[in-house]
Amino acid sequence: MKDTKTELKFFSVPEWKKEEKYLREQHKNGWEFVNVSGFGLYHFKKCQPRDVVYQLDYNPDSVSNKAEYVQMFSDCGWEYLQNFVGYSYFRKDASEVGDNEEIFCDDESRLDMMKRVFTGRMIPLLAIFFCIIIPQMISQNLIDYPANRILGIVFCCMFVLYLGMFISFAVSYWNYYKSIHR
Amino acid sequence: MDSHIRKVYVPMTETGFYILLCLREEAHGYSIVRKTEQLTNGEIKISPGTLYGSLSKMEKDGLIRFVREEDKRKIYHITELGSQVLDLEMKRIERLYKSMMEVK
After folding, report:
1. Which residue, A45, A137, A156, B19, has most beta carbons within 10 Å?
2. Which of left, alpha, beta for A92 (phi over 0: left; psi -120 to 50: alpha)?
């Protein structure tokens, strides 16, 4: 039997809680997370099934202060795994994790992380949306050359795709906001 | 003290309060975690993500300053502005406590 496996899995920008659960489930089933690369290729290696808590942080500031950042988490017992598109991956054995212990201990800092994700990941997408996709969609569909028809359709599709992404982020943000302001 | 500082830090989170309280002496992140645990008999356990975010925010806002680095751990100390904010917060908590005892 193979000792490693790779799964292709796509989590959209605001779905890090889902991703944490996915990694924890894999470890419970005897697949230890090794790393993630490319467009969401999750690499695992076979291990003894164990309950291990996985946590993600998004903090662009940590890139320039990596040594101190990793040290602080490791002082608190969290093993640093890797950085992937701005997200830092940590894990800790469930037996060492206290009641409801997470890498964030209050709602304010949970919302702060959400805001960092918004600034780091969503603002660039919004910029592309408003500065490229919308103007191109309008101009390509107004010019009456047959050659532009295809481009017109392409930009219309991108418009729908991006809009879907923004709505999904807004819904996740809202649910998240509600869940911590119960 | 400008209105931004007041708005963000008065009142402040429990984590923020313990960070400023501990930083009246020079300290690094993990020693703040341990000291807070001792002070609260283990009831408050500051998590690293929250701690890292709070320290960077407070440093940016001038409530604490970076002193030096030891073994990859940054040592911070409270500033004059930080002390003023902590004073305000202590007075607020004293008032809360006094009111509580009066009606108890």
Report:
1. B19
2. beta
What residues in B contact A67, CB-CB < 8 Å? 72
Contact A68, B69 (CB under 8 A): yes
Q: Is A64 on the interface with B (CB under 8 A)?
A: no
User: pLDDT tens, A91-100?
Assistant: 999 999 988 8
Which tokens sit at B81? 């502005």
Expressed as residue numbers, the domain containing A86 is: 4-96
Domain B3-103 has CATH 1.10.10.10: yes
Contacts of A98 (CB under 8 A, 6+ apart): B45
Buried b (16+ CB within 10 A) or exposed e, A51-78: ebbbbbbbbeebeebeebbbbbbebbeb
Neighbours of A3 (CB within 10 A): 8
Minimum Cα–Cα distance from A111: chain B residue: B50
Query: Residue A73: which of B44, B48, B71 has the nearest Cβ?
Result: B48
Report field, pTM of the whole predicted structure over 0.80: yes
Chain A closest-CA separation from residue B55 CA (Å): 11
Which tens digit of pLDDT belongs to each residue from B62-94? Answer: 999 999 999 999 999 999 999 999 999 999 999
